[in-house]
Amino acid sequence: MKLLKIKVTGLPLCKDVLEIDFFAKQRVESEKNETMYHLFSNIYLNNAVAIMGINASGKTTILKTISFIINMLNNQPINLIDANDVLKGMKANERVYFETYFYCENNTINKLETVVQKIVEKGDLNSKYIIENEKLWSKNIEKIKTKKTLLEFDNLYPAMTRSRDEEFLMEDVSIIIAFNKKYRAGFFLKDMSGWTDFNFLPLIGEFPEELIAFLDPNIDYLKADMDGDEVDIRLKFKDNEELILNSPVRLNEFLSSGTIKGIGIFMSAMFVFQRGGYLIIDELENHFNKEIVATLIRFFMDCKVNSNGAALIFSTHYSELMDEFDRNDNIYITRNKKGITVENLSNILKRNDIKKSEAFQSGFLQGTVPAYEAYVNLKNVLMNL
Question: Residue 279 CB: number of other CB atoms within 10 A?
């Protein structure tokens, strides 16, 4: 399945309705369509979606919201989803409204409306989230004549509905479980947003020599195997004897943080490429130099590498990375002023040929660089130490 759009109303940390589009809203020129995934007709998907903003502007919250929705659509109970902390701050009986639009390989476009409610048990401080009600609409792609009608479901009856009184479903599991079972559908997701501040190898196996050489040309090979409960790691540098390590943590003694993180991310990308899934990364540039980050983005936007339409969804502080994109509709700007807001760059910059990094750094986009007044105040403090 492929995400087309999410729309969320009522998130505690968000000031307004949160909307993220995963399909190309702007016109797709014929010479540029090799960087995008062709879904059907004139509908293309962006293979990379960037969330850009200053510190504490809400980038991580947006990534967690996307992860929460994908996991919910993958039949996960919402109370067990790691990213459900985006619901923290809800008061008793408050509701958050999710609208999710997605494509399924049975050639349908689908709209799922989900109402999540917070319940506080009487006489108890314990709380939980339930799915109060849901509706699912489906329509065949043959009925879609223009991009404008892609997400229109007016005058269509729901294909599935639920209410709180239904007994055949757990109260925190979406009705999408029946849809997924019928069509053997689902999303492949690698969410690495929780690894931002950790330098740890999360994968076991024999890593391609080409990947290792790209990240560190001084390494001959790196292999990590499981023998029962024991981890057997074999690392060899050029012109040196093989090292045998019994813990992934010990790799920090021999490899740079960028190499370790790079192995985890690029290996995850390989799995995502194979399945046409989603890779979510918070602060993509963390531990990396700019060229390695840019290489990963280019791989996702190269349809010869990414032939199954996998999508990289990431946040970054590096405005220069935005110059890797030919388009504006796959970049989102986050701001946080009494609540998080998200705006698509194509609504601000109408032309794709304007250098995006300069627009960010100049302050033209407002809220994408630290305020000048804050800069002056900090400078004065440092001058008077």
Answer: 24
- Token representation of residue 97: 């409204």
The whole-chain average pLDDT of the chain stands at 86
Tokens standing for residue 264:
């985890």
Sign of CA dihedral 354, 24, 308, 68: positive
Q: Is the dihedral of CA 26, 29, 35, 41 positive or negative?
A: positive
Question: Residue 368 pLDDT more than 60?
Answer: no
Q: pTM for this one?
A: 0.89
Which residue is it, tokens 């986050």? 334
Instruction: Give the pairing of strands 219-227 and 230-237.
Output: antiparallel
Alpha carbons within 13 A on the beta-carbon side of 82: 9
More confident residue, 53 or 374: 53
Measure CA of the first residue to CA of the last residue in the chain; give whole Å. Answer: 57
Q: Distance (Å, rounded) from C-alpha 50 to C-alpha 20?
A: 11
125-152 pLDDT, tens digit per residue, is 688 999 999 999 999 999 887 888 899 9
- All residues at 6 or more sequence positions from 52 whose CB lies less than 8 Å from its CB, including other chains: 59, 315, 316, 317, 319, 322, 331, 332, 333, 334, 345, 360, 368
**The two structure tokens encoding residue 167:** 């007994």
CA dihedral of 262, 268, 75, 310, whole degrees rounded to 10? 110
Pairing of strands 311-316, 48-52: parallel
Taking a C-beta distance cutoff of 8 angstroms, is the pair 54, 171 a contact? no
